[in-house]
Amino acid sequence: MSDAEGDDERRKPKGVFSTLVANGAWLYQKGEYKKAIESYTTALTLKPGDTTCFVGRSKCYLKMGQYERALEDADASIDKDKTFFEGLYQKAEVLYLMGEFQSALVFYHRGQRIRPHTQMFRLGIQKAEEAIENSVGRPEDVKTKIKEQLVLQKDANQKIQKTPKKEKTTRKLLREFYTDQKYLEGLLKDKNLVKSKMKNGDNLKDVIEETLAYLDICTEFWNQECPETPEKEKKMNSKGTSSSPRMPAEPAEFLLKSLEDIDEELTSGNAKSGLKKAEEVLKTVQGWSEKEFPNKKEVLGNLHGCIGNAWIELGKMDRALEHHHKGLELAEQCKLPEATSRALDSIGRVYAQMGEFQQAIQVWEKKIPLVRGDLEKTWLFHEIGWCYLELGRHEDARDYGVRSAAAADETADEKWQINANVLVAQSQLKLGNMESSVSYFEKALNLARRHQDSAIINAIQKALDEVEQH
Predict the structure, then answer these.
(1) Closest CA to 237 of 250, 226, 224, 228
(2) Could you give the C-alpha distances from 215 to 139, 177, 205, 229, 439, in angstroms and in order?
(3) How far apart (Å, rounded) are the C-alpha atoms in residues 146 and 433?
(4) Are residues 207 and 317 both part of a single domain?
(5) CATH of residue 112
(6) Residue 357 burial (C-beta neighbours within 10 Å; 0-12, 13-18, 19+)
(7) Do residue 77 and residue 133 come from a single domain?
(8) From CA 52, how far away is CA 57, in angstroms rounded?
(9) At what angle do helices 414-430 and 454-469 cross, to 10 degrees?
């Protein structure tokens, strides 16, 4: 083989790879997530471990409501390079949409440390903190909740003993926050560092100590909600002389382990095994009384969501809808806006995946009042607009695209600005407004160039060329 032929062979895979990545990005923009996944997967066979492909495929899975797979790809994107900021942001986004707000906050912060001037991490931190305040509460709210919990337990004649803060217990309760706690404790040992001040004038030492104090409060609160059973009580339970035979000695630990096992099965692609496990746990929890386990309905809603996701993986959309609707019903009964919002999101995604775009629109429009920030409005309006585009209702698609673009401008999130402008461009093209279509495609292209995303640039340029040729 000549040198020239060898060069051609080396160029060929690279050209095919770039085309596959660009095609994946374009299909993602069009909302054809399954085809986009196929394109990214094929690209990964040519270049295993490519971080851009993992992030792109993770976004597709996220759009389809397959959160575990989205998380798996996000993790893969930062497996070798923990400073890959796009992977960190994608993982944070997946965790946020899974309702793991505290874990999401950790990764938003890690990304911001690497890219301190990037808007998306600042906005991510803001929305995660708001979500945590709504679900757990500010430090002063947590203290109040702890007191209320103690009073309720005393009224029920339950003896509560404060569990010593063992290292193992703290690690279990804080989970990913445990690493950050140790990191902050290490910073306090640096005498020169803690003397410095932050940009807003606050002493760094005060900020660190305040954060550590907050983590202590959260640890104590979660420990009260999920206390470890004393050894003596464990022995009594093993003899069957204590709590109900249907109730594990440590229900919180049982549920945590069960949910982790279910997530692991679904993430690994073992939908049948995950479904079986989730159904077994569901049956077990259904046998508990609400007096024994006050959070029963909330846990049942979570399990119905897991079962719904498993049925999606197995292609049984009717069964998936059945369980996601049950999860929605329980979330509404418990008056949990976050869980209600997530359930509506999942139901809408199932309908969209089934091609039932009108039903998806109806469900997602119910979610609009529950949206708290412009970033969430951006993607929700975009999804509704995309469904209208699929239905051929191009004016409605354009209007929602414009609303999505306006919300994206408020957040200064360039990627969603690109998505929204492409949607408007596509809608205007269908309406025969060629000049307006070109204008929106060009705006999206300029944003993509500023973002330096070559795959998206190529995809938009290709679409723009096709419009201009007409």
Answers:
(1) 250
(2) 9, 8, 15, 22, 50
(3) 60
(4) no
(5) 1.25.40.10
(6) buried
(7) yes
(8) 9
(9) 20
Q: In this structure, what token pair is assigned to residue 356?
A: 């039932």
Return per-residue pLDDT of the chain as tens, 470 residues: 444 444 444 444 446 888 888 888 888 877 888 989 999 999 898 889 999 999 999 999 998 888 889 999 999 999 888 888 889 999 999 998 888 887 888 888 888 877 766 678 888 888 877 776 665 444 444 444 444 444 444 444 443 334 444 566 666 655 556 666 676 677 677 666 666 665 455 566 766 776 776 666 566 555 554 554 444 444 444 444 444 435 665 676 777 778 778 877 877 778 888 899 989 988 888 888 887 778 888 888 888 988 998 898 888 899 999 999 999 999 888 888 888 888 898 899 899 988 999 999 999 999 998 887 777 888 899 999 999 999 999 999 999 999 998 888 887 777 888 889 999 998 998 898 888 888 888 888 888 887 666 777 788 788 777 777 66
Q: Which domain holds residue 389?
A: 381-469
Q: Is residue 241 included in any domain, yes or no?
A: no
Nearest to 414 by CA among 463, 367, 349, 460: 460
How many Å apart are CA 276 and CA 413, to the nearest integer?
40
DSSP string covering 418-435, please?
HHHHHHHHHHHHHTT-HH
Tokens of 304: 């119905």
Looking at residue 230, the DSSP 8-state letter turns out to be P
Residue with tokens 């003596």: 232
Q: Is residue 97 part of a domain?
A: yes
Q: Which residues contact 370 (CB under 8 A, 6 or more apart)?
A: 337, 340, 341, 344
- Decide if 3 is inside a domain: no
Does the residue 406 lie in any domain? Answer: yes
| Number of compact structural domains in the chain | 4
Task: Examine the fold and report which residue of 140, 160, 189 is the final residue of a domain before the chain moves on.
Answer: 140
Task: Select from 427, 429, 408, 410 the least CA-distant residue to 419.
Answer: 408
The answer on 279 and 258 residing in a single domain is yes
Both structure tokens of 429: 């093209």
Note whether 385 and 430 are same-domain residues: yes
Cross-strand pairs, 203:
197
